[in-house]
Structure formats: C-alpha cells, structure tokens
Amino acid sequence: MKSKFLRNIYTCVPFLIIILMIGTIHTWMLAKEQSKPYPEPFGRATALPQPATDGGPVQIVGEGAFAYRSGSTLIYMKVKEDGQYVSETRPIPDTELFSSYKLTGNEAFWIGSGNKLYASEWSQGVWSPRKELSGSAITGFQTTSEPNGKRVLLAYSELELYAGIYKAGRAVSWSKLDIPGISRVQGVLDKDGSIIVVYSAGKDGIVSIGYAKLEADTLRPLQEDKLKDVELAAFNKMEELEFSTYGTSMIAAYRISSSKSGKSYLRILSFPLDHPVTVEDHELQIPVTASSLSDTILHPTFAKAPSGELSLLVSSVYEKNRRLTSQEVYRIGFKDGKPTASMPISQSGGFAEYPAMTFIGESALVVWLDPMGDGQFHLNYATDHPAYKERTSKLTTDDIRIAAQTLPLLWGIGLLTALLGLKWIALPCLYLFALIGFRQHHYDSHPGFHFGLSIGMYLAAKALFIGDYRKATALQVMPPALQSLLAYFAILTLFAAIAYAVTRVWRRGLDERKVGLEFFYFVLLDGFMTNLWFSYFMSPAAL
C-alpha cells in the first residue's frame, strides 16, 4: 500500500467489521434466546403504563375487567379478547386511611379510620360518602358476591369472625362466630346458596385450618369443622390460604415459608363437601429442570372458567437455561381433584408475582405484577385468545435493543477464553523461532511454504483442542444447529478462510514478505473471531 496511514487503517478495519458482523448475529440470537419459546397458549405480556403501588393481586371486577391502585388513584381496566384495553381513573374514596381494600365494579370496601370497615358506591362519576359497616375494630376482611346482587362480608378480629350481608343503602346485620386468632379467611358461594368459609387461626406454633358453612339468608352457622392442624417449626409460618370448590369437593392451597432458608412451598388440601373431615393433604411440586424442583412457590390463587374448569395460579422458579432463571407465573390444572402438569404463562425474565385470572368469554386473561423498586410494580397481562397471541408473539425492536445492550456482558468472558489460544500458537511459534535460528536462509527463500506450514500447525492444534469450546455449559445455550462437530469444524474453516483472505490482501502493503508478521496477523484475526464467537456461549453471566 502506498500510504502507511491507509495500511494502518486497513489493519484495524477488519476487526471492526468482525465486531459488527458477529455482534449483529449475536444480538439476534440473544433476542431470540430471551424471548423464545413464547408462552403457550398465551401470547407475550403487555405492560400497562401506570404502575401499581400496592404489592398484591389486582382486583377482579368483572368479565375481562380488573382494578388496582396507583398512588392516590384507582385504575379500572377493561380488556378485550384481542388484548386491546380501555381504562378509567377514579380517586380513592377515603383520603384519610384506605387499606386492605376490596373493589367491585361500582363498590369499594376498606379498613379505614379506627380500623373499622367502610364502604362507598361509585355513581355519576363520584364516590358516595363513606359508610361505616362495622361497629368495632377489625383485623381484616373478605367479600364474596351472589348472583342476586347480595354481597357477603367476612370480617374478623382477634377474637371473633363476623359475617354480614351488604346491600347498598341498607345497614349490615352481622352474625358472629367465636373463632379467636384468625389470620386469614375466605368464602365462596355453594350451589345451594349457602356460604362456605375456610379460615386459618393459630397460636403457639400450631395453625388450624377450619371450615364453616353458613345459612344463605341469616348466615347462621350450619356446620363447623377443623380440617387440619399444621405444626410449624420455629422459623416457619403460614403465609397464604386460598380455596375453591370443584364439583362436590373443595380444594385449598396454603403456603409455608421459612425465614431461615428463605424457601417456601405449597400444599394442596382437598375434602368432599358432604364430609369435610376426610381430608387429603400433599405438597405441590413444580419441576424447574429434569432433576430439580422449585423451592420458591408464592401467591396461590384459584380461578374457575365458565366451563367449570379449575386452575391454580402461582409464582414459581423458572429456568430457561443456565443463564436465564426467573420467577414466573404458572398455571396448574386439575383432573379428578388432583393437580395436573404445570405450565409457565409469563416469561418476563424478572420476578412475576401476585397473579390473578379472569375470563373474556372462553378466553383466559392473566394479570401479574413485577417489582420495579420504590414500592412500585410493573403491571403485565396476557390472554390466550388466538388474535392476541398472533399480535404479540413476535420479536420487537425493544427485544433487539435490550439484547444489544446486554451483549457486552457476555463478550466479557472473551478476555479469558483468549488464553485458550495460547495452546494453538505454541507449536507453530516454536517452529518459526527454530527455523529463524537454524535455517534463516531457507526461511527467507521459501516464505510461502513456511507460512502455509505454520498455519497448518496452528489449525491442527486448534482442531485438536476442540473440547475447549464444547463444554456442557456452552452446548446448553448453543442452538441445536450449531452443536454438531460438523458445524463446529465448518465455523473454524470459515474463520480461517476469512483470516487468510484478509491477510493476503493486508500483506500487499508490506515492502517484503515477513512470514512471522503475516502469521501473527493471521492468528490475531482468526483468534479474535473464534473467541468473540464462542464467548457468547461460554459466558457464565446470568441475565
């Protein structure tokens, strides 16, 4: 080359082109690795713009409708089958204290001032003045609705459980059950109109799961039974209790967590409604890999489809591969009262929690939260409607952008894998040094022969140490088409051919042939391509 400046530029340009080409391929591969396989049969998640500010599941307020709190407002969402949505913003009905709230389409219940239960109705764009429902302080409450518009309230204090029927504009008449130490309670409507109540209450390391059946109109207790005593170790506690009816049986899910190990597991309890003392209890196990089970199962909730099919949703560990492990939402079906295979619904790559499910016709709508810090949560939803799945299950520009930003983290291991190349150059370097020292004339007279021979030694050593780049950890994240030996050698041959072609052009700028310098440039190019390419698969980084 006539200009030394141009020669120096050409020396560096091939490396920049290699970074660009391999970087483009790796970005595409990483975007697919992070996004695929898409959840089945659900589409990819849609994120809502307004974050949630309460750590808990959204409130289901109708078919395809849910509500949640965002700061000092309540966001009401209505989602269509294809995933499009409309939203409505309402102020919270009590600016003094608004905790442990329950929302319906046009009603709100909450624990407010004095730890008493209050209610308000939404009408003509405003909340009605709050109405006190309980005369005394309560610890918590739950609601359940009936087809005739009545709403059953279940409130509890440290000593008692109260049940009352709420109708707008009427006072609530409470019945009382003497059940002390209640920590959580839930009720559902039975087929005969009665109310089934399941609760947990405990002291001294023993939590009792109890059952009560209340008469439809008076809420007078018809039956009370203790289902199970759960003995807890010193570091364990019962966190959640959810249940649903299933045919002539009832199924409950309760979670035990350990403050010592940080792990939590879920147990499924079932019994026939006509004989609640016959209880079956077993642990729910969700596989993470072929040889391991999830040790963190959170936030169980039941959902029943219009067809009567029952599903249990939980947040559990999901491992896509060795560098992509996350907490995702799982859906577990039931057959004959027994859990069937589980499947992940979300693939957010974060910490999906607090799932909730409702239905839009025959299509399921699942909503979950993902913490974003500072007491705020991303809100995501997905449906299993074919139109939604077709629209969302594709790579996006955000996928490509995130992959491109993440790629340098995976390439960082290339600084270490480059040391593997020292084994490839040892033999040809010794050969060239010996030739210069003892056969300088032959070295100068036959540069092409010695250049070719040194490259042959280099490539032979590189092929000999094939196992360096074919460790099990690398193969695990390598696309199947690239895992065969044939593909491996094809890639090495391609890199060698590119390096040789570039070196032939590059050496035209030299005043005379210098085998050592040509070989050095070839090795730099070939080793750079090889290590950059395989560092993507060998990187131990967790994403």
Explained architecture:
The chain crosses the membrane at residues 12-31, 409-436, 448-466, 486-507, 519-538. Keywords: Membrane, Transmembrane, Transmembrane helix. With 543 residues, this protein is of the alpha+beta class. Helix content is 28%, strand content 39%. The chain contains 10 helices and 31 strands. Strands 6, 7, 8, 9 and 10 form a 5-stranded antiparallel sheet that branches. Strand 19 (236-246) and strand 20 (249-258) form a beta hairpin. Helix 5 runs antiparallel to helix 7 (447-464). It is elongated, with a radius of gyration of 33 Å. The relative contact order is 0.11. The mean pLDDT is 87.
Key phrases:
five-stranded antiparallel beta sheet, alpha+beta, 543 residues
Quick one: biggest sheet?
Answer: 5 strands, antiparallel
Helices, by number, come to: 10
Helix content: 25-40%
Query: Distance between termini?
Result: 45 Å
- By secondary-structure content and strand pairing, the structural class works out as alpha+beta
- Topology, number of strands: 31
Taken from the alpha-carbon principal axes, the silhouette is elongated
Report the uncertain regions.
none
Query: What proportion strand?
Result: 35-45%
Query: Using only CA atoms, what is the Rg?
Result: 33 Å
Question: Mean pLDDT, as a whole number?
Answer: 87
Short description:
This protein has 543 residues and is α+β, with helices and mostly antiparallel strands.
Helices and strands in order:
Blueprint: H1 4-35, E1 46-47, E2 59-62, E3 65-70, E4 73-79, E5 85-91, E6 99-103, E7 107-111, E8 117-123, E9 126-127, E10 131-132, E11 140-145, E12 151-156, E13 161-166, E14 174-177, E15 182-189, E16 195-203, E17 206-214, E18 221-231, E19 236-246, E20 249-258, E21 264-272, E22 280-284, E23 287-289, E24 292-293, E25 298-304, E26 310-321, E27 324-335, E28 338-344, E29 353-360, E30 363-373, E31 376-383, H2 386-392, H3 397-411, H4 414-417, H5 422-438, H6 440-445, H7 447-464, H8 472-476, H9 485-506, H10 515-538
